[in-house]
């Protein structure tokens, strides 16, 4: 049987023949980026940081100005209070940038309210008015409102997450740092509340990113965290693309039949040791740089699932040899390759430790892998509507249960 590559010269993600793709052209989860509507808010934050340095310099030069002088009012603030002041001011400026960067909507109104509330707190600090309690209400309300929008399915981005970290840091300065205050137990509760807000923000970010992504691997979709898709709009495949996709599927089904027995896969160099779960990738290092591209007879990775104690072959994962190489999408929009980003790689033992957190960190002992080479799955299970897309978890669970029941 001839390889599918012998029948087509069409590569990559459109009708054009290309051999590489700009990593910056991929579409990824907004959780790891600053979306265009929030770039003005980021600029405002930079200006605020420069303004803090300028006001500090001017305040030192106007230490003897009259009682109503703005710089004298600022100079009366203790050092921790100045820190909180600039954090609150940063939140106000960021929210103003969000108002200006978005089209008028309910979110714009919420951003405007956030701008007014945080500006009011900053003004009270300069005016010498009681400000700690208002600051607590405003900052806690802002963080919880953001977490609520994330839990409702709104996608987070780095600007939104950074704003909440700024507000939580300001809260820490308001309710934790001051030396005077309630007893140890009450202060411990307040400290725990700051941690709780951090957890709520992180959890909400994961929920928002996962639920806002379309979850598939088709052009034009918003991918979930950790997945990169090539840019482009979805379209109907041509008759030739459908024929090539069908040929690829049939060839892969026939070629992989021998690997239903993991012992056969092991004999051919696939690492099937310690098989578990519903998504076990058994790689073959000898095939990852052998010069073969999208060869159903020599896939770089086999994918298995466990039906009780019985392994079930799900399909194959094909990989490009280099980062930035575009995979041969022989079926056009039916066979879209994808890459991964912000993967946490454990060093001891070597393996995938998960995805980078919304705060930009990996688990201890793991490093961030910014981007991987492109890859593409072909599933060989009978009954799938799309052998090149995602397997529905509920469908797979029922399928494996039926296999286990059948013995």
Structure description:
The chain is of the alpha+beta class and 407 residues long. The chain folds into 2 domains: 4-25 and 235-338 and 374-406, no CATH class; 30-212, no CATH class. 44% of the residues lie in helices and 12% in strands. The chain is built from 10 helices and 8 strands. The chain has helices at 39-61, 70-75, 79-101, 106-127, 132-151, 158-175, 184-212, 239-256, 262-267, 393-406; strands at 227-228, 280-283, 301-307, 310-319, 339-347, 350-355, 366-371, 375-379. Strands 1, 5, 6 and 7 form a 4-stranded antiparallel sheet that branches. Strand 3 (301-307) and strand 4 (310-319) form a beta hairpin. Helix 1 packs antiparallel against helix 3 (79-101) and helix 3 packs antiparallel against helix 6. It is elongated and about 85 Å long.
């Amino acid at each position: 049987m001839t390889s599918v590559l012998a029948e087509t010269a069409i590569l990559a993600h459109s009708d054009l023949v290309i051999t590489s793709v700009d990593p910056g052209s991929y579409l990824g989860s907004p959780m790891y980026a600053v979306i265009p509507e929030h770039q003005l808010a980021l600029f405002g934050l930079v200006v605020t940081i420069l303004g803090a340095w300028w006001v500090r310099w001017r305040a030192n030069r106007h230490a003897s100005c009259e009682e109503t002088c703005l710089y004298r009012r600022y100079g009366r603030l203790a050092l921790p209070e100045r820190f909180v002041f600039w954090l609150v001011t940063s939140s106000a400026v960021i929210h103003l940038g969000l108002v200006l960067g978005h089209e008028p909507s309910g979110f714009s109104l919420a951003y405007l309210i956030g701008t007014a509330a945080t500006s009011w707190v900053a003004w009270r600090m300069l005016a010498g008015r009681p400000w700690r309690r208002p600051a607590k209400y405003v900052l806690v309300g802002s963080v919880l409102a953001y977490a609520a929008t994330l839990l409702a399915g709104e996608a987070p981005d780095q600007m939104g997450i950074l704003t909440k970290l700024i507000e939580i840091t300001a809260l820490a300065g308001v309710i934790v740092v001051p030396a005077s205050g309630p007893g140890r137990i009450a202060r411990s509760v307040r400290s725990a509340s700051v941690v709780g807000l951090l957890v709520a923000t992180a959890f909400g970010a994961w929920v928002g990113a996962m639920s806002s992504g379309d979850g598939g691997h088709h052009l034009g979709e918003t991918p979930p965290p950790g997945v990169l898709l090539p840019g482009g709009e979805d379209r109907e495949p041509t008759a030739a693309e459908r024929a090539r996709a069908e040929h690829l599927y049939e060839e892969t089904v026939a070629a992989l039949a021998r690997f239903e027995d993991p012992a056969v896969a092991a004999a051919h160099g696939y690492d099937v040791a310690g098989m578990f779960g519903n998504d076990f990738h058994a790689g073959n290092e000898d095939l990852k740089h052998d010069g073969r591209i999208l060869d159903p007879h020599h896939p770089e990775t086999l994918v298995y699932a466990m039906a009780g104690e019985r392994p079930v072959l799900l399909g194959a994962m094909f990989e490009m040899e280099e980062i930035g190489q575009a995979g041969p999408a022989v079926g056009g929009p039916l066979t879209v390759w994808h890459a991964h980003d912000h993967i946490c790689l454990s060093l001891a033992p070597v393996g995938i430790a998960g995805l980078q957190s919304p705060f930009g960190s990996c688990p201890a002992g793991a490093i961030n892998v910014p981007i991987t080479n492109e890859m593409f799955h072909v599933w060989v299970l009978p009954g799938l509507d799309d052998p090149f897309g995602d397997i529905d978890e509920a469908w797979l669970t029922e399928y494996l249960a039926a296999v286990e029941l059948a013995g």
